[in-house]
Amino acid sequence: MAVREAEPIAVEEARRRCFEWASPREVVRVPLVEAVGCYLARGPELPEDVPPFDRSLKDGYAVRAADTAGASDGTPVSLIVIEEVAAGGWPTRTVEPGTAVRTMTGAPVAPGADAVVPLENVRLPEGSAGREGDRIELVIPARAGDEIQRRGDDLPKGSSPVGAGERLGPREAAVLATAGVLEVEVVRRLRVAVLSTGDELLSGPGPLRPGQIRNSNGPMLAAMMRMEGWDVRDLGQCSDRVESVVQAVRGALESGDVVVTTGAVSVGDYDVVPHAMERLGMKLLFQKVAIRPGKPMTVGVKGDRIWFALPGNPASTFVTAHLFLLPTLRKMAGARVWDALRTIAVLKGRPSEGPIPLTRYWRARVWLEAGRAVVDAGREQLSAAISSFLGANALVEVPPGEDPRVGEAVAVWWLDVPPAPIGY
Amino acid sequence: MAVREAEPIAVEEARRRCFEWASPREVVRVPLVEAVGCYLARGPELPEDVPPFDRSLKDGYAVRAADTAGASDGTPVSLIVIEEVAAGGWPTRTVEPGTAVRTMTGAPVAPGADAVVPLENVRLPEGSAGREGDRIELVIPARAGDEIQRRGDDLPKGSSPVGAGERLGPREAAVLATAGVLEVEVVRRLRVAVLSTGDELLSGPGPLRPGQIRNSNGPMLAAMMRMEGWDVRDLGQCSDRVESVVQAVRGALESGDVVVTTGAVSVGDYDVVPHAMERLGMKLLFQKVAIRPGKPMTVGVKGDRIWFALPGNPASTFVTAHLFLLPTLRKMAGARVWDALRTIAVLKGRPSEGPIPLTRYWRARVWLEAGRAVVDAGREQLSAAISSFLGANALVEVPPGEDPRVGEAVAVWWLDVPPAPIGY
């Protein structure tokens, strides 16, 4: 029973042990759109220049800037239009002195030209429609480079603007697609099994027997991890006896990367997780963390599989899932940045409780007031209070022994803000 | 060709017209976990009290507080343990004076008892294990209500803590599941078709023909809307001739709620959207918006279907998708709050360009510095620059004629922050 006597370790040390252990799963090559929500295993080298040719930024006329020197209302420069090029077309003529090529937005700029004059800056002489064979008049001098985006100016071939560990979202999809990257190497989606332990739980429908309560941790964890894009199997519940837990977790570990259980971890008469880990030959990463709620949080590993045994109290599950489970799993999924946004905020409300020698986490709501983060932790912080989840988009972190007052700055995890994508 | 002469309208007016038109799609009843990411059509009335019975918050002993009056180290109160109740169990005995029921965390509190004394506050006399038939000693008086969560205290039956229009995420799933709501009525997932127009585009793999560019808007939009949880069909591309666009959009409108096209909207020779909308019998909501980038943005509706014709320039697509498309679609998907977070932030960097009589939107990066929002819009803001998307998690909004300097406060849309969930 030595495992029962573990001393709680600091939250930073517990997180460090998880992150040190966690490594990305296998790399798969998939079409770009199927990779949405996954993390890049490698930052692809762009195979093409963007744009792939010198391109007009406006509907207008490709001209030689030198031709237009001195153009003014009184002394217009007259050019003859020798060709028309639409986006998708390709010029066949070269712009010689005295000529211009009508060039639409996105169309290639004809050789010989070094500027594009927008339609609205061009005057059409009597009888001219500004089309091939017509004359146009310029009344403002053009400068070399005007309204032209040079080949490779936006994204040069061979560069890697989106790095390994970035999450593939719409912006990354646009950047990669435009340079011809239509398949990417990403870390495959995690496979996670969720299991709630406890004879008191009812997971399915139907009336509660006396003494039973509904399983809320299973649906919460499943929803949380589905929103990350992972494959989540909700195994429902099992008895919190060692034998049942060992059997259920063994099966889940064989088919998945991660097993998340809730319950059966604390020091009561029927707590079984440390023993089950022993029976499964797992190495304990830690057994208790000096936090409230969530102190009996236990993590075990075996090979490349990990078992997060979260405490059964809903608030403990909520807090430990955000502090340990999600960031560790994001790292396993290949993320370069795995934590939610951490900042400081002015405390607007707090629960009535005194300091303790543990790191406290208050479920709270953070928002911006005139550009400044403020946070309200005034709701009931009871571990068993699920109502404290309503609107809780943040955790206030209170170090051991501290007891911040309303109006003071506190450390806050902003849970809804995704890990930062790309360095800017 | 009257449609071509439309005056641009203000961004607020254009958004108002979209939101006024948009109404939620049909309501479906689905299991809770399948509803993840959907918006609730109705806030369910909780069918059960949470907790469903008076419940112990600690491992300990259910006692009569009156019995413990005057308990101290010198004058302990001795009680006899008459029963043991685990979580999931149900007491069969009543706590009479001089008795206690051993009661584990989450277990029902036996009738007669009005307080729970935690294990750690109980002394065991010589030979007692504190189990049924043993005696225990209390050395601190208990107060009525100690460590008991009363039936319905957390969430009372009949209340509706999660309202219509809230997005179903992990917190909402926990709150509803715990009160026995295992199915919810949500607005069904949107069906969206994405179509890129332009003969210059290459959507699939293979080398570019001279003058062609890659389709990046399609993958970007598809990724954006997949991350919202909607059913997105990427129809690839079609020619930007009226006939092709009419045909492609007609088919897409029949099978989906929304068609999003890019390109073919501006005043060039080959622009066709207004004509196509006319041919399809659609009502124009607006044809131009006084913004940059994105001015030729056009929206048409017919019955309960909507066509967003976004400009083809990638930056225009990016900006208009965030300002018009996503919020309108979120409202159609049942959201109560459809916009991303809007706040003010201190401007850290800005592009070199002068004021214009349009509302400008700069792709930018927002973050928190010591709890205060700051934003950097120092990247190239060219409409055709896809590299400007890298790390752009925000849009800086600059009103017509204004030209904020570095160090000033500006309005910012924080694109990655989801619409606020529940009022707190």
Automatic annotation (TrEMBL), chains A, B:
GO terms for molecular function: metal ion binding; molybdopterin molybdotransferase activity. It is an enzyme of class 2 (transferase). Its EC number is 2.10.1.1. One of its GO terms (biological process) is Mo-molybdopterin cofactor biosynthetic process. Pfam families: MoCF_biosynth, MoeA_C, MoeA_N. Residues 193-331 form the MoaB/Mog domain. SMART domains: MoCF_biosynth. Keywords: Magnesium, Metal-binding, Molybdenum, Molybdenum cofactor biosynthesis, Transferase. GO terms for cellular component: cytosol. Pathway: Cofactor biosynthesis; molybdopterin biosynthesis. InterPro entries: MoaB/Mog-like_dom_sf, MoaB/Mog_dom, MoeA-like, MoeA_C_domain_IV, MoeA_C_domain_IV_sf, MoeA_linker/N, MoeA_linker/N_sf. Its cofactor is Mg(2+). PANTHER family: GEPHYRIN, MOLYBDOPTERIN BIOSYNTHESIS PROTEIN. Belongs to the MoeA family. Catalyzes the insertion of molybdate into adenylated molybdopterin with the concomitant release of AMP. NCBIfam families: Glp_gephyrin, molyb_syn. This is Molybdopterin molybdenumtransferase. It comes from Hydrogenibacillus schlegelii (Bacillus schlegelii).
